[in-house]
Design brief:
Length: about 425
Amino acid sequence: MHYLKYYREVGAVGRRRLQQHRTVTAALVFALCSLFLLGSYDYAGADTGVGDFVPHQVIVRLQPTGVSIDDINATYDSTTLQRFSDDSDIYLLGLPTGSDVQVTLDQMTSDERLLYSEPNYIAESPEGDARHRAWGFSSDAPSSQDYSATMLDLATAHSMSLGEGATVAVLDTGAQLDHPALQDNFEGVKHYDFVSDDNNPTERRVGLDEDGDGTKDDLYGHGTHVAGIVDFVAPSAKIMPLRVLDTEGYGDVFTISRAVSYADRNGANVINLSLGSRSRSRLLQQMIKGAIADGVVVVAAAGNSNSSLPHYPAAGNGAMSSADGLVAVTSVNMYSKKSGYANYGAWVDVAAPGDDIRSTFPVDGYAYWSGTSMATPFVSGEAALVHAVYGSLDPASVEGKIRCSAQPLLLTDPIYGAMLGAGRADIGASLAPRLCS
Ligand SMILES: [Ca+2]
Ligand SMILES: [Ca+2]
Ligand SMILES: [Ca+2]
Ligand SMILES: [Ca+2]
């Protein structure tokens, strides 16, 4: 499915805002609460993306009472664009030209045949919108001397496990499937391109600046970079590349949710989501909860807006974080201080290095990139190692190990240290055979 064409419908920048939507109100309430609870005045750098959605589309879930989607379409003059899966009660509907998503959703709210309805929100890689770019492309691979490796104590971790038997699904811009460092990780694992609906999630430049920010293919290489970080932490783990973001880093929640469900059904032990938005999608949250219930740890980026506003899906309900199997990851620099761009707050679970991270990049090389998207796969790799060592642990217990072994950041970052979750991940310590809580 090509959402890019929908951007074009509405102009150069092209993404519409749902200004009056209730999530904005919820965000403001949370911001005010955060101000009081956390004493923070630095929330104002809110990212783009509040209420961004695909025009003329809504997601509906039917009540389980024999409701027919044809009846729903008759009421709203809509058409079924896609059913979530063959036996699903969830549909992506197209609204007639000239219709207003908000007006339709207001009507749907009181429609007793529907369990819920929501816009098809647009999520994006936190490094989009011209904020952070990859640099320093060459054939130089990352090494065990990199600050991330020593900070996370990968030497100790690798003496216990390399991640054999674990599978990490990377839902991103795709990947270079034949990158020499990643070929082995992808071998024998399913893959899929949910953007183009084909079986080849290879990253390719398309040479277009769809969001009109002056750069073509802003996020080309993102998925390959993220996959390389998983490989760096858990070199024997398998990686399932699922393309859900276009080359500019955008994807819609219907597509991302389908990929989460696919990863869940096809043997992933960990799902890495280096993406998100300011809007909470009930569908995406439902699929993530389902995956966790099936034993999958879901690890998601906290976002790059230097904000305490919750970033979804990482933030779950937007409430206080806990060891629940959904891990919200923010970023610290080599001095164990919050990265300047990194989000923070009570909804964050843990921090990992995210500044100047060297990893795989197409074609056949390596590059640096910074962002919470880079911090996130370190923790996905950690979850893969914990899974490999303690196979019987449920996702909440895996996250429990990640959180309780983390190093507090109060001394290195007195300003933000208390708002970076349990602290900085310590992968070596997380594999130690002791119980912690
Ligand atoms: Ca490898
Ligand atoms: Ca493709
Ligand atoms: Ca662009
Ligand atoms: Ca959590």
